[in-house]
Every structure is written in C-alpha cells, then in structure tokens.
From TrEMBL:
InterPro entries, A to Z: FAD/NAD-bd_sf (IPR036188), GMC_OxRdtase_N (IPR000172), GMC_OxRtase_C (IPR007867)
EC supergroup of this enzyme: oxidoreductase
Keywords from the named record: FAD, Flavoprotein, Oxidoreductase
Ranges where the Glucose-methanol-choline oxidoreductase C-terminal domain occurs: 432-555
Species this chain originates from: Sporosarcina psychrophila (Bacillus psychrophilus)
Protein name according to UniProt: Gluconate 2-dehydrogenase alpha chain
Length: 574
C-alpha cells in the first residue's frame, strides 16, 4: 500500500461493497438521479460467468467466489482468556467477494423475521416477566416494528420475485408472494405427511429460486429454476436465483449514475469531527491508493467487514464486554443448527441429486414465541425443516453413525444409503451474550497492514437448552416418516470456526432506538456520524431462526429512503 493517496473529485454518495445491501441502495439512489460511486474489492461478475459452471471442486471446495483467506481472514477464540488464531480455511461461514457478494452464492431462502423479533425484549418480558431474559444476554428491541418494516419486505420480495405461500403464523402481509411456491417433490411430501400426522402445519419455504418466469417492477426478466442443484457456493447460470448482479445492479448501471469500480478495497473511512469526509481505497491490482471524498458514506460490505472497517477507522465506540459500554462489535450472533436428525431408510430411494437452494418445507410451530416457554430455560425457537438442495457428488457421503470412516464397510454403506437418507433439520435463533463480540486483533494484520477482525464467540447455555428441546422434535418427525435408523445431534458442543456449518452471521453494528445501546438508528444511520449509513445483517441485534437475507433487503430499502432524506435535509433522521 502506498503512502500517498490520489484525491479524486467529491461525489454525493460512495458505497462500500456491492452485494445485496450495496446493490439495493445503489439502484434506489441512482433511480432518484443521485450520482453514486460503488466500490467493490473483487471482480465484476454476471450470469455469463456461470454458464455451464457445475464445477463442484472449483466453486464449493476451492471457494472461487469467496474472500481470499491468505490476504484477509478473521481470528477466533471461544472466550476472553484464549488467544485468538486466524481462520485458515472456510468452515463455519463463507464470505463473498466480487460484484454480487454473498448474494451471488447464497441458497435463496428468503424468510421474513417475526413481529416477535423486532420487539423481542418488550414482548418476552410482557409474557414471562423480566426475569426470563438473563442478565448476561443484552437483548433489545430493534427500534422498528414489524408493521413499520413490512412495506420494505414487500418491495424486496417483488424486486427479487420471491416464490412462496402465505403463512398466517408469521405476521400480516400487504401482498402475496409475487410468484407461487416451488415444486413439492416426493422428498418434501414425506416431510409434509409426517408433520401433518403430528398435528403441524408444513408450508413451502419462500424462495429466491424462481418457480416460474418473472418480470419485476424494474423490468428485469428472469427464467424459472431448473432444479440443477448448483445454488449454494455457485452463481446461477440461468439467472433464476435472485442475485444483486442480475437484479438491482443492472438497474443502477442502466441509469448512467453508477460509477462501479471493481478491484477497489476500502481500508478506512476518513472523518472530520463527527462527520465522514470520504474513504480511502487500494487498487488491488496496482497497489495504488485513492481518496474518494463524498457527502454520504454507505458501508455495505459483509458483517465482519462492516465492523472491521468502522473499528479501523475510529468510527463509533468499540464494545467493551467487561463494562457493556460501546456498540461497535456488540451482539455478534450466529445460528444454532445442532439438533437435526438424519433419517435412513432400508427400502426407500429418492432422487437426491436434483434440487435447489430454497427447495424446502418447514413448520411454524417452534419458531419465535409460537410455543409456551414458561417452563423452558431458553427463549425464541427454531425452524424445523427439510430441504432438497441436491446432493452433489464430491461433498456428500452420508452414512449412519458407527460406520467406519474408511475401508470396505464405509464404501458398502455409502452405496447403500446414497439415495436413502433424509435430513430433518433444526435452524435455531441465536441470542446475544455479553462475551460474544467482535473487535480488532492485537497481533494479526491483513495484506495491507490493517488489523484483522477478532471474533470472540462460543455457544451459550441458551443455545444448549434450545438444542435439547429441538432435537426431540426433529427425532419425532423422523420417526413419523418411518425411518429405520435415526441419528440425532442432541447436544451442542463448543463452537469451532473451522467445522460448524451455518453461514449466517449477524450483529456488530446493531440498530436500536437508544444511542447508548446501538450503533445505528432504524434508517441504519450512525448515531456518532450522521452521514454514515451501515447496511447489512450487521444491524441485527440478534439472529432469528430464519435466514437473514430478506430482512437485510428490507432494511436496505429503508436505508436508501433515509439517505435520500438526509441528502435533502441533513441531521439525524429519528
């Protein structure tokens, strides 16, 4: 990195990161006639890059679309007494890189969070009393209600063409999903029949994989899903999967108001007093350093990178776990996916090689506060679900527990059960803990000499109790399906950054109505720097049991609205 920066002409808005959050905000601002510079550290991508891209080794195992961990990673420790060490390969999560970001390699599961989520502290205490929330769980309301965010959910779903069916247990909707649910395959019918037998109400999961041809309000046309099974970790060759690179970013480009600069890695935000003046970025090909002045800075990269950029720029007060003060890095949450049951069948076979990232069914009975927690030692819940992702040949080799991990018996069982297993999954909510947080690592730096982000995180007693409860539910569903062998993961171990496999990270730059306990307001505008907006799942004060993209998208539309208001009137928007 050079010591001298080339100063560029000032622009109204600069956006850091061109994934879902950055793409939505760029589209909305440029449609309103506002000049935007979009900075993306990776390369440009479009549907053409993925034609015949069914290369499992390249995309899934060698992580073609992800951040290069040899240049920038995170460090992790389970508690404050441990020394954090760098994450050397992907396990727990995958951080996107390039135009589209994580929105290009995601699966497409597009839920809304519950009304309960947005007012979780108020509603939990109202039903169970103040003692229900433990003192070491800094749970808070979001500073916005479901009714207030609902129109933004609707806008996101229409833009992305979300395919689904209305579920009454999840809050009121102003409109049905723009396209109908995906195909109900024989695999999903097994789950449907079993859960109905148990008295539950299964429904098809809302999907960013289009169930039919669709043209959105911006005039973007996309084809229907082909159920090819190459969704997660892959870009969609058909454009059937909602992706910023095929939805919002082309709209922004078409206006002529977006200056999209790829290979541009932002290393710090510049500030003058309590306002940002612009950003400094490095051309990752030449090593040149540039200063981009702007009236508004939008931080819209991944959860980890949002928090890291603010910390490295001295914006906002870093969270201190010993005092509970500060908000940058606070309330990092993951997702609790232990509690699932693998069901093996002796005389049934399924076509497990066809599928899609959001081809699935779920039951609503155990999410949020939809069941009585009076006698339970945890709050919130989990989605009990079954998906048919498509079993790609390299990564999938499922055998019952007790099978040797190599040799003739392993091969025999692998062949026997290759198409004769189903997974009843539990995806649980993640509540914040005072000792789970993000800060800067004191020892390790990236390729540009900037401190890496350090994650301090482990599962809590809340998580372990949730897993115990949900594992009984998944096992009962597997039994109702008629499984001959059932393997249930009924205990939650410690968190391992290289092994746990749920890609959903939230928090670190959380929203709220109180500047003492949050970093941004309901427009994602920073309390401590009014011309900085921080968009993405970093704003979530906790993580629900649902995948975060729909809520991230809704909040990004609201942020775009707030930025336009700020450019006209200035000052705090709430």
């Amino acid at each position: 990195m050079t010591t001298m920066s080339t100063k560029l002409p000032k622009v109204p808005v600069v956006i850091v990161g061109m994934g879902w959050a950055g793409g939505i905000i760029a589209a909305e601002l440029t449609k309103a006639g506002i000049q935007v510079v979009g900075l993306e550290r990776g390369k440009d991508r479009s549907t053409a890059d993925y034609l015949m891209g069914h290369d499992e080794l390249r995309y899934q195992h060698r992580t073609e679309l992800m951040q290069d961990l040899s240049k920038e990673t995170i460090t992790h420790r389970n508690n404050l007494e441990m020394r954090a060490l760098p994450m050397r390969y992907y396990g727990s999560f995958i951080v996107g890189d390039g135009v589209g970001g994580a929105g290009s390699h995601w699966n497409g599961q597009t839920y809304r969070f519950l009304p309960y989520d947005f007012e979780i502290k108020t509603l939990t205490e109202k039903r169970y009393g103040k003692g229900k929330i433990k003192s070491d769980m800094p749970i808070q309301d979001w500073g916005i209600t479901y009714d207030e965010i609902e129109p933004y959910y609707d806008t996101f779903e229409k833009m992305a063409g979300i395919s689904g069916e209305t579920v009454e247990a999840y809050g009121k909707r102003s409109n049905p999903y723009p396209t109908g649910p995906m195909l109900k395959t024989p695999v999903l019918k097994v789950f449907e029949e079993a859960t109905k037998k148990l008295g539950y109400t299964p429904y098809m999961v809302p999907s960013g994989n289009l169930s039919e041809f669709y043209e959105n309000p911006d005039g973007i046309s996309r084809a229907a899903c082909q159920y090819c099974a190459y969704c997660e970790n892959f870009g969609c060759e058909y454009g059937a999967k909602a992706d910023p690179a095929v939805t919002v970013i082309p709209v922004a480009r078409e206006t002529g108001k977006l200056d999209l600069r790829t290979h541009s890695n932002v290393v710090r935000i510049l500030k003058d007093g309590k306002k940002a003046t612009g950003v400094v970025y490095v051309d990752t090909i030449t090593g040149e350093e540039f200063e981009q002045p702007a009236d508004v800075v939008v931080v819209a990269s991944y959860v980890f990178n949002n928090a890291r950029l603010l910390l490295n720029s001295g914006l906002g007060q870093p969270y201190n776990p010993k005092t509970g003060k500060g908000s940058i890095g606070k309330n990092y949450c993951y997702q609790v996916s232990t509690g699932s049951s693998m069901a093996f069948f002796e005389d049934k076979e399924f076509n497990l090689y066809a599928g899609a990232g959001a081809l699935g069914m779920e039951i609503p009975e155990f999410v949020g506060d939809n069941f009585d927690h009076s006698n339970e030692n945890f709050i919130h819940g989990a989605g009990i679900r079954m998906f048919q992702y498509g079993a790609r040949p390299i990564a999938n080799n499922v055998v019952p527990s007790g099978t040797p991990t190599w040799g003739p018996e392993f091969k025999k069982q692998s062949i026997k059960y290759a198409n004769s297993y189903l997974k009843v999954a539990s995806q649980g909510a993640s509540m914040p803990h005072q000792n789970n947080y993000l800060d800067l690592d004191p020892d390790y730096k990236d390729a540009y000499g900037m401190p890496l982000l350090r994650m301090t995180y482990d599962y809590t007693e809340q998580d372990r109790e949730l897993v115990k409860y949900m594992s009984k539910v998944t096992r009962s569903v597997a039994e109702a399906m008629g499984a001959d062998i059932i393997d249930t993961a009924d205990e939650q171990g410690e968190f391992n950054v290289n092994k746990d496999t749920n890609t959903h990270n939230t928090g670190g730059v959380i929203m709220g109505a109180d500047r003492e306990t949050s970093a941004v307001n309901s427009y994602l505008q920073m309390w401590d720097a009014e011309n900085v907006f921080v968009a993405g799942a970093s704003a979530f004060p906790h993580n629900s049991s649902f995948n975060p993209t729909g809520t991230l998208g809704a909040l990004s539309y609201r942020a775009a609205e707030g930025i336009q208001k700020f450019l006209k009137q200035g000052g705090s928007l709430v």
